[in-house]
Amino acid sequence: MLGLNKKDFSLLIVVAALAFFAPIILNIFPKDSALSFFNGGYPDLMQRFAIFGIFAIGFNILFGLTGYLSFGHAAFLGVGSYAAVWMFKLLSYNVVPAIILSVIVAALFSVVIGYVSLRRSGIYFSILTLAFAEMSYRLAYSVLTPLTNGETGLQVYTNDPQILKGDGPSVPHLFGLEMRARTELDIGPWEFTFPVGYYLCAVILVISFYIAIRIFRSPFGLTLRAIKSNQNRLRYTGMNPKPYMLTAFVISGMYAGLAGGLLAAMDPLAGAERMQWTASGEVVIMTILGGAGTLIGPILGAGTIKYLENVFSKMNEGLLHQWFSFLPDFMEDGVIWVVSKFTGEGWHLMLGALFMIVIIFLPGGLIEGGQRLMNAIGMGKKKDEQSNSAKSEPAE
Amino acid sequence: MGSFILQILNGLDKGSAYALIALGLTLIFGTLGVVNFAHGALFMIGAFCAVTLSRMLSLSFEEVDPTKTDFLGQPLVVKTPYVYDWFGPEAGAAIIDWAVPLAILMAIPIMIAIGFIMERGLIKHFYKRPHADQILVTFGLAIVLQEIVKANFGANPVPTPAPTAFQGSFDFGIWLGFDPNIIIYPYWRMVYFAFAAVIIGGVFAFLQFTTFGMVVRAGMADRETVGLLGINIDKRFTIMFGLAAAVAGLAGVMYAPINSPNFHMGMDFLVLSFVVVVVGGMGSLPGAVLAGFLLGILESFASMNEVKSIIPGIDQIIIYLVAIVILLTRPRGLMGRKGVMED
Amino acid sequence: MSAAALAPVLQKLYGNERSAYHLTADYTWGWTQQESIQAATEALGWKTVNNVLTPLAQTDFSSYIAPVLNSGADVLVLNHYGGNMVNSLTNAVQFGLREKQVNGKNFEIVVPLYSELMAKGAGANIKGIVGSQNWDWKLEDEGTKAFVKSFGTKYGFPPSQAAQTCYAQAMLYADAVERAGSFNPCAVAEALEGFEFDGLGNGKTLYRADDHQCFKDVLVVRGAENPQDEFHLVEIVEVTPVGQVTYAPDHPMFAGGELGQCNPGA
Amino acid sequence: MGILEVKDVNKRFGGLKALSDVNLSVQENTVHAIIGPNGAGKSTLLNCLVGKLIPDTGSVMFDGKSVLGRKPFEINQMGISRVFQTPEIFGNLTVMENMMIPLLAKRDGAYRLHAIESIDHEKDLVETAEQMLKDVNMIDKRNMHSASMSRGDKRRLEMAMCLVQNPKLLLLDEPTAGMARADTNNTIDLLKEIKATRDITIAIIEHDMHVVFSLADRITVLAQGTPLVEDLPENIKGHPKVQEAYLGEAH
Fold it and tell me: What share of chain D is helix, strand, coil (3-state, %, to 5)?
């Protein structure tokens, strides 16, 4: 169906269902229960799941398929955001032209940066992409301030032209449908929020995912995997790896631009910090955490990181005391001392440790972890062979 | 002319920090074939060795002085460092004053130990893994190390001054026949440069003139063959990792007075030092040192008003620009060997 | 604002005939800060020798500081904040600028805006450096005393201005919500427009309706030469009354543009 | 006129003269072996044919067109496929996927963006690949991860990948190097079958005389970068110059 085989189609359905029902699934705990702390179903976080999911899907097309590790993809996300906000400033708050332009601008940037960076491979490629991204970041903060509004961030002012605005809303909207509009649904102790902005992101996420599946299964995707495997053989087989690499680079750059455009559509503000190399590092972490080269891994990785970031960073000591109050005092203090190092402000420690554990023990990411778990409990033994060839292609 | 000389001095000094870090990175890469993204963190830990020692030396006992009050209006608690009590106030003050140079003694064993633990506990499992995995696991380690330091020392920079004897600056200009105040340079930065030169010279001499070093150099050139000769190259490589960690750590100890150490300083240097290594040529020790000084000097020139007025913002991007140009024109960096890290 | 507060003190301390060399963090905050301090000092009769922009990501400022002495300037103004300021000030002192004599005067360093946290990061280098602050725990009013007492009892050290700001803002917000009778951001904004209050330690404070700027007394401080303990890093030189720092809402340099319409969100 | 004409090719590496005045003519639909002691320049010559090296002087014409200055993928597109000394395959891919790449290259050229249609829908290519796998007795391994196969199987797969492109010229670089006798014989049988069933020219570089004399129609002996003799196999066997060259190597 839709040009997919049965297995891929069911994967797409799963992702679509997860995306569609996320506001319910993520708010599974009743709002007054102690566990409601772990709910992630608020609009801002859900939008981030979807947007960074798109970013990671795109990054995976480059890194997962070809093995080229770019340390500068945040630059494309950044220019995507700037392009979108410029569209808001010049035309109107309608998100459609903004998102389209963000993809186009990111594509142009990635053609230039990709063309130069792809002249080298291995760590040299990584350093080149890193250098370009750092240059973009630093210039956006300083010399390019007329274009980027520097550290204040690019935003829409009332005296901006907005030539197509007319009587339209003064917030980002989709042909009049405001991004921040939402429907709330109370069922007994549960409370669910269905935001418009999230659903726009979710629909785009599902489409992006669908396109990614098609790319993975296409002759182009196969060629990219062949590039990762043996460029030398590929050249003597009559293919020119360079344009394939560049295409993959540009496609992943466009995904990043799309993610940047969506970030701006959710909150019409674009800042240079989105382009810093640490932001590029984040998408690498997401992709690998989930499982580079797998279809669904990057989405999982993005979701996991954004969820942990939100949940762990808001755990403070007061909350921990509440939770561990059942322990005897001396143990409570000990446990809290340890846990507090990994939560709240210390959540980066948790991130670093988690990331190390995944790289050491699960080079295939969470997906591999899931598969091993399935195998361990005797399920999916049969599926293993199939999924090896069809789905999971660990980082290397 | 004066400002030109001044910026060369600046560049040499900046370059010594880059060169020291890049040297350690290259030792690890050249011998073990591992790309260590946690190397910046080792530099940072070195700087915090200086902080720790100066805090340990300042450990104090408390006495209540009823004649004075503190900010809440309660009797003032006066803290006196134990060293004052043991050695008398003057000698005690001198010891605290010399905390940073003394920290070198403390840092060497600590850094070597950290290097050993890192290599045996983590890195050795990654020799056969792809470079991307090495980069990523050491990146994770760098985050963990810097977060541990942040949890213990806070997020703010910790001022760690040089000994009083080395504070202030020296007027080079007079010495070279210029007017006063034209070419001045801080004493401590000159110490740093000299220190870097000694360390770099020491490492090269060690590799050049000891049998140990010869084996390691041979191993850098062709690991398998040396392994076949029945030499336990792994053990030597562990030692090399310890040595590289010590070089990074010492670079950090001595850097503490130049910029107050903070938990993030490793990451700040990491990206730069990778650029330095790549520009020098992965796996080439002289390349790393040369590129360190070259980039330091170029960075200093780019920050000159005369240059900035022609190309605004050039100081923001000079390092990266140079890196891109060198990588495109000399694919293996300035002194890189063929076939290193190209897959 | 800090510039307007600082200028009279600078005049008193360093006279009218000074040449200033500016190092400015290369981003919007740095630019505006530099612009206002330049205007204020030039009004005193100071000359501006040079203004050099430094990258925000810079950690070692030596190559920017090295040419200062040779430029003929006798004052270095560091328009840096946070980590930038800690490092640039540390570097400047390393270069021995404060021990030098230029044009027959002692060379001086000015940091227009700094906080205790930054002073702590700069350590001994902050000694004698003049700058401005929002608030300081050594103020003598009742609000400050009460806050310092309860904060100091709980944490064992006096509150920083950041702590005071957080506390004061939370109080103000709570009060505004109460007065507005609503959490609606527009209602809260309206409750704060033109609101004037006192007693939180900052003296009489006004949230001007025209441009939503906050006006209050500004402290001019100086790094203590011989701090009696680790908490007395800075000493208050002067409290510049609010009247001296107030400017017209349409002041060409500070005008923030129109406020736009309030958007209550979803 | 042969299908491959090498004229007066010279190649130096610094002070070392790797090839001097090499002339070689490979006739269509023959097996032409190039033999010679170590360091005779066989690999250098091969690399000049496939675009990895460019000769300092001379010309290399294939099918009436010069290959000089062309990149390896362009030369492959002209109809030259190459088998390496150690099998070069796509280790991350399955056997079937390995087969698809050369077919795509053959049909679509050096670059064509096919990013949407599934590879499984390329029915024609899949059939061709399956037929080829049947021909080399590998059809039962079609879904195997190619990196996990034996060296012999990898060699066969690589050969299949080259043959499936229907090249005009197949270059074999010591195809039996490091193989056990049984595997070597299998390879010889495979090559014989290819020779019998296809219109194909094969140029083979080989050490193993057994292989050479089982297959070759003509043999060129290379020593110190220069062709010594070119003749029929039976004439090569007892040729004094050849013996000298090989004995010279032994000493």
Answer: 40, 25, 35
pLDDT value for C258: 66
Boundary (domain end) residue, out of D150, D178, D202:
D150
Residues D134 and B335: their CA atoms lie apart, in Å, by 51
For the cut 70, the answer to whether the pLDDT of residue D226 exceeds it is yes
**Residue A233 is nearest to which of D71, D90, D143, comparing CB atoms?**
D90
Confidence of residue A396 (pLDDT cuts 50, 70, 90): very low
Indicate the SS3 state at residue A289: helix
A-to-C residue pairs, Cβ atoms closer than 8 angstroms: 36
CA separation for the pair B149, B164 (Å, rounded): 27
Q: What does the radius of gyration of chain B's CA atoms come to, in whole angstroms?
A: 22
Q: Which residue of A has its CA nearest to B278?
A: A124
Contact C174, C167 (CB under 8 A): no
Question: Do residues A116 and B301 lie in contact, with contact meaning Cβ atoms separated by under 8 Å?
Answer: no
CA distance B71 to chain A (A): 28
Q: Return the structure tokens found at B56.
A: 């340990």
Distance CA C110, CA C125 (A): 12
As a whole number of angstroms, the distance between CA D147 and CA D157 comes to: 11
Locate all alpha helices (DSSP H) within chain C, ordered by sequence.
Answer: 2-14, 28-44, 62-65, 83-94, 116-122, 142-155, 161-180, 185-192, 242-245
Q: Is A390 a residue whose pLDDT tops 50?
A: no
Nearest to C176 by CA among C166, C167, C187, C168: C187
Question: Given this model, what pLDDT does residue C244 score?
Answer: 83
User: C70, C87, C150: best mutation site toward chain B, by most B Cβ within 10 Å?
Assistant: C70
Note whether A147 and A90 are within 8 A (CB). Answer: no
d(CA A105, CA A108): 5
Domain segments of chain C as ranges: 2-134+215-245, 142-201
- Answer whether B151 sits within 8 Å of A132, measured CB to CB: no
Instruction: Please give the CATH number for the structural domain made up of C2-134+215-245.
Output: 3.40.50.2300
Residues of chain A with C-beta less than 8 angstroms from the C-beta of B133 = 359, 363, 395-396
Instruction: Give percent above pLDDT 70 in chain D.
Output: 98
**Tokens matching residue B49:** 């060795």
Among all chains, which residue has been given the structure tokens 């090249």? D167
Q: What is the ipTM of this complex?
A: 0.86
Q: What pLDDT does residue B313 have?
A: 84
> Do residues D187 and D119 share a domain?
no
Element at D81 (helix H, strand E)? strand D80-83
Residue ranges in chain B modelled with pLDDT below 50: 342-343
Residues of B within 8 A of A289 (CB-CB) are none
What is the pTM assigned to this prediction? 0.88
C176-229 pLDDT tens trace: 999 999 998 889 999 999 999 988 888 889 998 888 888 888 889 999 888 877
**Is the pLDDT at A389 greater than 60, yes or no?**
no
CATH number reported for the structural domain that contains residue D15 in this entry:
3.40.50.300
What structural domains does chain B harbor? 2-58+99-329 (1.10.3470)
Task: Determine the 3-state secondary structure of A144 from DSSP.
Answer: coil
Residues 6+ apart with CB under 8 A from C112: C2, C3, C6, C33, C37, C77, C78, C79, C131, C132
Give chain A's mean pLDDT: 87
| Confidence label for A208 from pLDDT (cuts 50, 70 and 90) | very high
pLDDT confidence of residue D251: 42
| B255 vs D208, residue with greater confidence | B255
- Residue D20, pLDDT > 60, answer yes
**Can you give the residue range of the structural domain that contains D103?**
90-150
From A236, A240, A251, residue closest to D50, measured CB to CB: A236
Unique residue bearing structure tokens 């059942």: A326
| CA distance linking residue B275 with residue B277, whole number of Å | 5
A77/B185: higher pLDDT: A77
